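Putative xanthine dehydrogenase YagT iron-sulfur-binding subunit
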Amino acid sequence: MNAPETIAPPRAAVQTYPLTLNINGREHDFRVEAWVTLLDLLREHAGLTGSKKGCDHGQCGACTVLVGGRRINSCLTLAVMQNGKEVTTVEGLADGNQLHPVQQAFIDNDAFQCGYCTSGQLCSAVGLMNEGNACTAGQVRELMSGNVCRCGAYPGIVAAVTEVMGIPGHDDPARPFQPGTVPA
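Predicted structure tokens:
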């Protein structure tokens, strides 16, 4: 005799919420669960994989994007909290085939090695310039300290950002940048 067939109870329907975002200059409509982060929405729902999931705890900056021109860690914000806002990812920095000045400066200053952190570094640099709080290479180092580069390309990163900002002296190679340090 066969064992009686067990039937799984019906799954409760998962509630989703409507969400509209202007991503890289184009309006997009989504329906997402309340727990979906902006990073996961960008990567899994919008197909924009430039923003990276590094630590998923807001400690590395690989997921940095711009919301309303200001930089945020997209792994730390829920997508529904950004409803109606303008989001710029690394894919939206260039103007067609014309690179953003920061992107070109990263190339010119050898500001990346493996490239995993580069999209977050680029968005953070653009956000830093939008915020207008850095006037020296030391301030750039400090205000970029939320973006970790495991390869140690910090001198090139600071040189690229200060070059675009027109800060004289760029970076001092004798004082390499270390994340979380306060410049003297």
